[in-house]
Amino acid sequence: MEVKIYTIPTCPWCMKTKEFLKENKIKFKDIDVALDKKAAKEIINKSGQTSVPVIDIDGKLILGFDESKLKKALKLK
Amino acid sequence: MTKNTLRNTPRRGIKGMNNFDVIIIGAGGVGLAAAMYSALYSARLGLKTLVLGASHGSELPIGGVITTTNIVENYPGFIRLTGQELAKKIEEHAKIYELVTIREEKVSDVKKEKDGFAIKTNKSEYKTLTIIFATGTKWRKLDVPGSKEFENKGVNYCALCDGPLFKNKIVSLIGGSDSAAKDALVLTESAKKVFIIYRGEQIHPEPINMERIKKNKKIEVINNTNILKINGDKFVQEIILDKPYKGNKKLKVDAVFVAIGHIALSDLSKKIGVKLNEKAEIIINHKNSSTNVKGIFAAGDVTDKPFKQLITGVADGCTAAYSAYEYINKN
Asked: CATH for A3-71, among 3.40.50.300, 3.40.50.10330, 2.60.40.420, 3.40.30.10?
């Protein structure tokens, strides 16, 4: 399972999402869109949103921190 | 960090794993500070304290609204730190006490019982002798045509979270308070231009932030003006003002950040009979943070105290914890 998370360092929901993934021992790639302008543009167009975090799980996007959606997508109990 | 423990202290309330002397609903800075203060009494007198906070939907993670503030400069002991750093420090302080439990659970129901209160969450049920409501507020939403349609498509509420997505763009910020000014300053770190649009005569941040606004060449303040409509395609492209700005009511912007105040999260307290004012804020006795319902106290932004800062909310949280302790002792 490939997990990518598009974040901004000052965003509290981004931190929360990363904490959640770490607690559940999910490996993920963290893309800081405050630094990576190309990735920022790409994720805005792909998600249709100007908001982070965006979590990409095998190509399926979850917008914002939503524990139940994350659990379902990651097949966690 | 070592837990502060005084063992063999009797619990004053009802026995049982899910029974507490004090339950604090809300895990922002105020709720955590109330827990810390309650813990000081816990250590001495055995008051068992639970803090319940949720981080779903519009609510914020543990730490609350201060986590969305970039720089805090009005909290004694810390000359300058980020809101998230301050929230973390308060959380760590509350957590060192063994009789304090912090759980990320959303409270769905509160009921009065013979010996106290029953609280139901999305995960469990609890009983408690006293409740402190520190539920805080949520952002007031902008209500103009286009504001809902373009939410998170250029209409954003958290400048600190989403501001960096607007690098070298032109953005607007609706509001005139100190929070609005701080948001505008945060936005200048990414955007090339920030218009502050305020309906009143003059924006009214704290003097230090007013100076920063005046000195910042990226910021332009448009007072006495309302936003009427938001237009765009996939994302925000322009806003329509009720008065012309430089001869035009249309203003090209890539984003509309909103900082027009907050709404008290007081539904649960209302359900259990706590009196609210016309703004739906919990009416408290300003001396001891008590409400009209015996055994229920409140503190922070959810109350009718007019000056809403973390520093004042924390003070009221400590007062509420002390009052809860006194109430338990007397009853």
From this structure: 3.40.30.10
